[in-house]
Design a protein that fits this description.
- By secondary structure, the protein is an alpha+beta fold.
- The chain is built from 31 helices and 8 strands.
Length: 662
């Protein structure tokens, strides 16, 4: 019968469908105008047009059609990608696997498992299988953790698969899901030097980020890594794990390594760990670092005494440092430590110390220094009035924003110590009245965030001014002031007002196709700053929208004189805000591009955002691998020269110019 059917079909010549000729995979966005059109459609959110290419005969078009899905914005359409999990072109298949994982859809787990090639003798599916393991972690829950942790068939040669396994377990850890078996598996990878650095770094970061992990039996192994591992990131993570443990048994290991450590990133984490160790046992070791030429280290050492100092040492340490040639923030931390810890009958010394801080606040011409001095003053809630006094309508935006976070800290300290509670609360409400009257968008956003963040304070309950915020929403310009709008909307919602809601951007910058066509695989940017020069190389294929936006702003001179307004040691430096406080944006936004890149090395360059599809002009550079940003913040470039300069940049340093080398 089948023969008859075949013969019949063969006789009907008019119905013969020509066999499609297979098109080889050749992804060339810089020269392929169809791909460029698809990028432009993605930027304006025209998913219906890009979806038409999901099953196109040209695999490069299929690959590009999946690109919008790598950012979790179309979860309701993720089933469109399930057939592509079996695509015959490896690149398309891997892109689809990653995108399905980004959806975090639990219903996708079955499809991902079916796409896993368990019998892969020739290892042709290793990269796809690795991505599936990561995607299962993103979509899964406790049962999937148990499955990932129970894998025993991988050996050291299966490094790509192990990396996927660890990424999957790490994604579950970020959801608060972990187990003894998972910690055991991760610890094996971290403490075993035969595994590749990429695996050990992610395993170490897992142990660093984990909360309440029982690592008691790894005391010796942690000490060995801190003491002798050749790679600084692993030593950095080991110090962080010791800090998280809160155990005094690590004191000697930390003290010894602090004295001999040559890498500043490691030294910073050791100092952070010292904060949680017995004060009397580490104070002299920490004190030695106040003259460290790296001000990030000297300031962290000084802040140790502010947060942990004892009454018997307060006057002694102040006498040691008050006349030394230390930077103002280091000196201010010691001054605050003195004022905080000396008893009332040392009135002259206390007054001299606090006057040192207040004098610097009055006379400093650097708004970023003043903002850091306000952070120091926040530890002394009895002086919260002085914080409020620095909020003026003509003050620099960074000072306005910092007064909010400083008053929050002052209230937290007051509640913890049960002293000056009424003073701090009263001054906080005075500050909020000033902000509502002034309507500064940065201060408003910060205030709304602080009021919702009710930990250790009762400001949310005391705030009786929510009705005065609602009219402000109508005056905000969207999308430039989107972050402020949404912070206020969420605050109003927290008071039961459901008449307003969080909004999404509707105005997106057009994709500049002509500019994009000028780029090449070697295009880079030379960033000249007041701290030195560094060079970044772009991920053009993965993040074309972000790359084009950055280059257009750089060539227009927008970034000239922009301040590095945020520096978190051992994390990031951030810039690109026209206000200089992190709350400034353009009159447009661009799409997030959260493709299969990872923050797996120092010097990854990412776009700052306030949520999906809110990026504009602000960007950051990482100091070390920071894996919790993976799949959440666009990576569009990486440092190829000048990482030492990145590590030297402090708050208040600025960009002089950016030159694009085509």
């Amino acid at each position: 019968m089948s023969c008859i059917v075949l013969l019949t079909i063969g006789c009907e010549k008019k119905k013969v469908v020509p066999k499609k000729v297979a098109i080889p995979y050749q992804y060339a966005p810089l020269t392929d105008t169809t791909i460029q059109k698809m990028i432009a459609w993605e930027q304006v959110g025209d998913i219906d047009k890009t979806d038409q290419y999901l099953f196109h005969n040209n695999p490069a078009f299929r690959y590009q059609a999946v690109h919008p899905y790598t950012t979790p914005r179309y979860q309701e359409r993720v089933a469109n990608l399930f057939p592509l999990l079996q695509d015959t072109i490896p690149e398309v298949r891997r892109q689809a696997i990653y995108a399905v994982g980004q959806s975090a859809d639990k219903n996708a787990i079955e499809h991902l498992q079916l796409a896993y090639h368990a019998w892969d003798s020739f290892k042709v599916n290793v990269r796809a299988n690795s991505l599936i393991l990561e995607a299962i972690g993103k979509c899964g829950a406790r049962p999937q953790l148990d499955q990932l942790a129970s894998i025993k068939t991988f050996d050291i040669a299966d490094s790509t698969l192990i990396l996927g396994q660890v990424r999957g377990m790490f994604q579950l850890l970020l959801k608060g899901i972990h187990s003894e078996d998972a910690v055991e598996k991760i610890s094996t990878y971290f403490f075993s030097p035969q595994y590749p650095l990429s695996i050990r770094q992610l395993a170490g970061y897992y142990l660093l980020r984990g909360k309440s992990l029982n690592l008691d039996k790894y005391e010796f192994a942690l000490g060995k890594i801190l003491r002798s591992d050749e790679h600084y990131t692993l030593r950095t993570y080991a110090a962080g794990v010791m800090a998280n443990s809160g155990s005094n048994k690590y004191v000697n290991a930390l003290k010894e390594q602090l004295g001999r450590e040559q890498n500043d990133q490691v030294k910073l984490n050791i100092l952070r760990a010292m904060y949680k160790m017995p004060y009397s046992r580490v104070k002299n070791d920490v004190y030695k670092e106040i003259r460290n030429p790296n001000v990030q280290i000297s300031r962290m050492a000084a802040r140790f005494f502010l947060l942990n100092g004892q009454q018997e040492d307060a006057a002694e340490f102040w006498d040691k440092v008050k006349n030394q040639n230390l930077d103002n923030i280091t000196t201010a931390n010691f001054a605050a430590a003195t004022a905080k810890n000396l008893p009332f009958y040392y009135a002259l010394t206390r007054n001299a110390a606090i006057n040192k801080i207040l004098s610097k606040l009055r006379t400093s011409a650097d708004p970023y220094e003043k903002a850091q001095l306000l952070q120091v003053l926040a530890e002394l809630p009895e002086y919260s009035k002085n914080i409020v006094e620095h909020y003026k309508s003509d003050a620099h935006p960074v000072i306005k924003s910092q007064t909010v976070f400083s008053i929050q800290k002052a209230v937290q300290v007051a509640n913890k110590d049960r002293k000056y509670v009424n003073t701090a609360n009263t001054n906080a409400l005075r500050l909020f009245d000033k902000i509502i009257q002034d309507k500064d968008i940065g201060a408003l956003a910060a205030m709304a965030y602080v009021l919702r963040d009710t930990a250790a304070t009762n400001l949310h309950q005391q705030f009786r001014r929510a009705h005065r915020l609602k009219p402000i929403l109508d005056s905000l310009s969207l999308p430039a002031e989107l972050e402020t709008y949404n912070e206020i909307a969420m605050l109003l919602n927290s008071y039961g007002d459901k008449t307003v809601s969080v909004v999404k951007a509707s105005t997106f910058k057009s994709f500049d196709q002509s500019l994009f066509q000028k780029l090449s695989s070697t295009t880079s940017a030379i960033v000249e700053t007041t701290a030195g020069t560094f060079e970044i190389k772009f991920y053009i294929d993965e993040s074309p929208i972000s790359v084009s936006n950055f280059i257009s702003l750089a060539e227009a001179g927008y970034y000239n004189d922009k301040i590095f307004h945020r520096v978190v040691p051992n994390f990031v430096i951030q810039t690109g805000c026209h206000r200089g406080d992190g709350y400034g944006s353009q009159e447009y936004v661009i799409r997030s591009e959260l493709g299969p890149l990872h923050y797996e090395k120092a010097g990854q360059v990412g776009m700052a955002s306030a949520g999906i599809d809110t990026e504009s002009s602000q960007w950051f550079v990482t100091h070390i691998p920071v894996f919790h940003l993976d799949g959440r913040y666009t990576i569009f470039a990486h440092i190829v020269n000048g990482m030492d300069v990145v590590n030297k940049i402090n708050v208040g340093d600025k960009i002089i110019s950016i030159k694009i080398n085509y």
